[in-house]
Structures are given as C-alpha cells and as structure tokens.
Design brief:
This protein is mostly helical. It has one domain. It is about 65% helix and about 0% strand. Helix 4 crosses helix 7 and helix 5 packs across helix 8. It is globular.
C-alpha cells in the first residue's frame, strides 16, 4: 500500500514549486472550459438539461433557431475540444513533476495527437458504460481500471488507445481500492469547491491532479508496466516523453 500522506505532501511541494504557476495555468484552463460551455449555451439558448430535452423532442432552439442536427454537431465539437484540453492539462502536470518548465501553450499539446486522445476517451466511455449496464459497481470498477489510460497516452503519444487501456488495466490491478480511498480523501475539498462556485478549484485542482500523477508513477513502478528508471544520459527516450537527466531547469519540447 502506498503512503498517501507522503504522496500528497510531495504533490503540494511540486505544485508550489512549478516554474510556470500551476494556479495560473489552472485558472486559464477553467476559464477556457467555462467559455466553451457558455458558447454551447449561447448557441443553443439552453442549459444542458434543456438541451437534452429539446434534442429528444427534435425541436429548434429559440436563441439562434438552430436545428437539432446543428446543435448536436456543436455539442460534440465542444466535447471533443474539452477532451483534448484535458490531455493538455495532464501533459502540463506530468512535465511539472519531472521538473520541466511547462509553458502555458502546453495546454494545447493534446492537439498534436488529437486522434488518439479522442478515440481513447470514446473507448473509455463505451467500456465504462457497458460495464455499468451489468450493475452500478462494475461500472465504478471499470472507471478505476482505465484511470491511467490517458496518462499513459500523454506520456507516450505513440501508443495506440488500446495499448494505453491495457497498460492502465495492468497498472491499477490490486490498487483500485487505494485509488477509491484517495478520491474519498478529497471529498471535503471537492464539496468546498462546489460551495465556492468552483473558485477554490484554482488551488485544489492542481494539487489533486498532481497527487493522482504521483499514484500513477507509484503504480507504474510497482507493476513494472510503463515504468522507466531515470536515465543518466540526459537524452530523450521515445518511450517516455518526460524521461531524461535530472536538470530541473530544462524546458519542455512538445515535439518530443
């Protein structure tokens, strides 16, 4: 069992020590995702709940008079962009953990392997949904089974989505309960974030994300799947986009 307290303390220290502020980066990320949701609401003239009802009734939306087909297209497009941005946030967090100077532009680095990100996210959603059809609990277990799939893909964009999923299955074997307890330990913070209309997320989100990456690294090492000992040659290795020497001032290169 991993030392949760130690991993959390490490995550706090790493987050605070980021060369490019994790809090500013998170603020920009949250603003962008908020704007995307507002674009959807403006284009459709409806909230998410109203959008679902209108689509079922196949009626146009009052604000712009868009057809259900156009609304569906806009909704899917925004969802896909959000998926890719989430990959960019993971890339930033991973880079910070490796001591890299991650520019704000790294938020968009998920677009360099956009196809794999989208296919992976869709596969995850389908698999979790299918498991959920059996019972609620299998769906939750499936969610933890594939928890590290996106991390694997962000760490090595040359992986296929199925390879990233299979690696996650191996990495989380025997650790799903620990990950569940980890999520429970953040329940209070998540409630406070909700009570503050998400404002507290600017400080809490990078801390939670960094802790999760810490668990990912620990699971890789424990399982031997995807774990690569730190290299001493100072060279980039294609199977780990963040491996290399110990120079904490080196910059991140999205082309690697």
């Amino acid at each position: 069992m991993f030392n949760r307290v130690q991993l959390k303390a490490e995550a706090k220290s790493i987050t605070k020590g980021a060369a490019v502020s994790a809090y500013v980066f998170t603020l920009i990320y949250l603003v962008i995702t908020f704007v995307l949701s507002m674009i959807l609401e403006f284009a459709t003239g409806a909230t998410a709940a109203e959008l679902s009802t209108a689509l079922e009734m196949e009626i146009p939306f009052p604000t712009l008079g868009l057809s259900p087909l156009m609304v569906t297209f806009i909704s899917i497009l925004i969802s896909l962009v959000s998926m890719v941005l989430s990959a960019g946030y993971v890339i930033y967090t991973m880079g910070v953990r490796k001591g890299l100077t991650m520019p704000y532009a790294s938020m968009f680095d998920g677009f360099t392997f956009v196809g794999r990100v989208i296919i992976l996210q869709i596969l995850m959603a389908v698999y979790i949904f299918l498991w959920s059809l059996l019972l609620f609990i299998p769906g939750i277990i499936a969610g933890y089974r594939y928890r590290f799939a996106l991390y694997n893909l962000c760490e090595n964009p040359q992986l296929s989505p199925s390879e990233a999923l299979n690696m996650s299955k191996a990495q989380t074997r025997g650790h799903k309960w620990e990950l569940f307890v980890l999520d429970l330990s953040f329940l209070g913070w998540n409630i406070l974030c909700g009570l503050t209309m998400g404002i507290l997320s600017i400080w809490i989100m990078p801390y939670i994300q960094q802790t999760d990456i810490g668990y990912f690294e620990a699971c890789k090492k424990a399982s031997g799947v995807g774990y690569i000992p730190p290299a001493d040659d100072g060279q980039f290795h294609s199977d780990d986009r963040f491996s290399g020497g110990g120079d904490s001032t080196r910059s991140y290169d999205p082309e690697r």
